[in-house]
Amino acid sequence: MLPRVKICCIQNEEEARLAIACGASALGLVGAMPSGPGPIPDEVIGRVAATVPPPIATFLLTSETTAAGIAAQHARCRTSVIQLCDHLPSSIYAELRALLPAIKLVQVVHVEGPESVEYALAAAEHVDALLLDSGRLSLAVRELGGTGRVHDWKLSRQIRDQARVPIFLAGGLRPENVRRALVAVQPFGLDLCSGVRTNDRLDEAKLRAFMAAIA
What we know:
Elements: E1 4-7, H1 13-21, E2 26-30, H2 42-51, E3 57-62, H3 67-77, E4 81-84, H4 91-99, E5 104-110, H5 114-123, E6 129-133, H6 153-162, E7 167-169, H7 178-185, E8 189-192, E9 197-198, E10 201-202, H8 204-214
Parallel strand pairs: 1-2, 1-8, 2-3, 3-4, 4-5, 5-6, 6-7, 7-8
Antiparallel strand pairs: 9-10
């Protein structure tokens, strides 16, 4: 089965339509972040999400770290999925389920070392999917995604083989390396941003090349 493709950093309705036309299964809409590309105001996220037809999923990328803050942001954005970009304590998931019972939760795991595997497997018990990315949480300004860097796919494969939920692979994916990534990790889905953009705009030629590379 071909992997699902999530196009992240969508900026407006035009980019959403282009991503869907090229075969995207999901769109990522980036809220306020401490660093990284693509953040747009919550009101724009809500406007774009409202135009996306099912079964295309809309992901709100949030850097909020409290259940109340996440739920309040979702109320403004109304996406079908929440992507939790920071590493969170396990206690928060039950709170989120109570506040947002119909909304899917995807936990980002920033794969930095073996400890990331342990965190991922613990988080997988509480969420609907994991997204393995290449951020760095130890920096003074935390990187929560959008780095364009490839991480250690061997660690990602360990997570993929042991987790009980679907895995999305992110981090520096491009037409030139995506086949290697698929062989190495065998994820359920792929998540990309910088690899299909030129001058901060979604590049149709790059996007179609990426889709052709995984066909």
